[in-house]
Amino acid sequence: MSDDALRDLLDAVGADAVVTRPESIEAYRRDWTGDASAGMPRAVVRPRTAEQVQATMRWASAHGIPVVPRGAGSGLSGGSLAVEGGVTLSLDRMRAIDIDPDTRTAVVEPGALNAEVKAAAAAFGLWYPPDPSSFEICSIGGNVATNAGGLCCVKYGVTTDYVLGLDVVLADGTLVRLGGKRIKDVAGLPLLKLFVGSEGTLGVVTRATLRLIPRQEPAATLVATFTDVRSAAEAVVAIGARLRPSMLELMDRASINAVEDYRPMGLDRTVGALLLAQSDAAGGICSAEVQAMESVCRAAGASECFTTDDPQEGEQFARARRDAFPAIERLGSLLLEDVGVPIPLLPDLLGGIEAIATRHAVRIPVVAHAGDGNTHPIIVHDAADPDSVARARAAFDEVMALAISLGGTITGEHGVGRLKKGALPDQLGPHVMALTRRIKDALDPAGILNPGAIL
Ligand SMILES: Cc1cc2nc3c(=O)[nH]c(=O)nc-3n(C[C@H](O)[C@H](O)[C@H](O)COP(=O)(O)OP(=O)(O)OC[C@H]3O[C@@H](n4cnc5c(N)ncnc54)[C@H](O)[C@@H]3O)c2cc1C
């Protein structure tokens, strides 16, 4: 980027919105993957208004400069890694939240954290369900751009199920307003949903209108332990076929031990796997639903079952599950998978992952949003040892190929980003890849929006 172009940017958005000092830029280069291939952007723009986002995109269009939209940088697929010499557009200063209890909606700027939206809704007795484990550190803009999932999605769905409206700034700086506070609206092509999950490659979200629902009932909790992962997965399949848990998570022995080392809470380190299930069924029947899940787990061979009606005790187990990523991070460098399959094939997926770990002599602890068939095998390796890196990469590719062979997906919620795009054609095939390219070219003909992500 020339000095003249940089001066134009400062004129367009104002000097106080532009960061150019390399020491300050450093914090905006990577996402949670810490990927070393991140480029060094020439500038970071931190707008306070949608007009500043529009000005940035008009300027980038005129100069042909790549722009990487960025939320809170908690992404796990390299979606917001900086591009060398480009601009990172950080939405972290746009954080307004406006709750409308009459329409049960929240109008939210993209930099607001998921947890802040939940808290604002709770003040009106309302609830914003999507709950990535990272809910305290990820932004709504990032959630919309990745169509984030989480722990309660097994019952309540994912981010897109709560997006009623979006303001999006396109590559040329045009602001389009899609949807709104209307529950039903089928006017025109369903463009709103095109932007949910588009990972910053089609436009920049500057405002989201989110659907809220009445506060969740207090949940009852079941923790069931199993001698092996396969029988835990078979219990998941049986629960999914008959019951409607509000949470159904799996942790294998390696992840249980990592969490116990990180923040001990007395989980049994010797079991093969545990299931964490909750029911928030209304009308006081959540305990009955938890008991039904316990029966299913016992029939599937659970070695021990523990149940509680105390929501706080249940939340402690959920916290242990949410701790899994930071806990496993302490074991070494990580390659994070996000593969998913139709629920009945979960035992085959988990069995196959164990075989891949053995074949490549790598450790692959697994945590899973098991009730969705969505798993996070986490490949632990030594980044300083080329042989360990090569084995980890081979295992990473094989896990994705396994998911595809089972009719599954390479990513259930984290997005393709930069780390998984090599496997995308294998899942989508040439026709869907070509269609994806045509849509990208129509909306961003110069290819300046998040180049290198997805495609
Ligand atoms: C400990 C931990 C646990 C996690 N658990 C979960 C989980 O349970 N479920 C889940 O789905 N994810 C999970 N994640 C992943 C991550 O938190 C989500 O992908 C989240 O949605 C990313 O939000 P962010 O604000 O950090 O976005 P970033 O990482 O900054 O960006 C992610 C993507 O969104 C794009 N983007 C960001 N803001 C905008 C915008 N305003 N307009 C257009 N594009 C934008 C970026 O370009 C990038 O492609 C976890 C991460 C961590 C670290």
Compose a concise summary of this entry.
The protein has 455 residues and is of the alpha+beta class. It has helices at residues 3-13, 22-25, 50-63, 114-122, 140-146, 153-156, 191-195, 229-242, 253-262, 286-299, 311-322, 324-329, 346-360, 386-405, 424-443, and strands at residues 18-19, 43-45, 67-70, 87-90, 97-100, 105-108, 126-127, 163-169, 175-179, 204-211, 213-214, 220-226, 247-252, 273-279, 304-308, 333-336, 366-369, 374-381. It is 36% helix and 19% strand.
What is this structure's SSE topology?
Blueprint: H1 3-13, E1 18-19, H2 22-25, E2 43-45, H3 50-63, E3 67-70, E4 87-90, E5 97-100, E6 105-108, H4 114-122, E7 126-127, H5 140-146, H6 153-156, E8 163-169, E9 175-179, H7 191-195, E10 204-211, E11 213-214, E12 220-226, H8 229-242, E13 247-252, H9 253-262, E14 273-279, H10 286-299, E15 304-308, H11 311-322, H12 324-329, E16 333-336, H13 346-360, E17 366-369, E18 374-381, H14 386-405, H15 424-443
Parallel strand pairs: 2-4, 3-4
Antiparallel strand pairs: 1-2, 5-6, 6-10, 7-11, 8-9, 8-10, 12-14, 12-15, 13-14, 13-17, 16-18, 17-18
Helix pairs in contact: 1-3, 8-10, 8-13, 13-14
Bound molecules: flavin-adenine dinucleotide.
Characteristics:
single chain; 455 residues; alpha+beta; Uridine Diphospho-n-acetylenolpyruvylglucosamine Reductase, domain 2; Uridine Diphospho-n-acetylenolpyruvylglucosamine Reductase, domain 3; Vanillyl-alcohol Oxidase, Chain A, domain 3; 3 domains; seven-stranded antiparallel β-sheet; five-stranded antiparallel β-sheet; 15 helices; 18 strands; globular; binds flavin-adenine dinucleotide
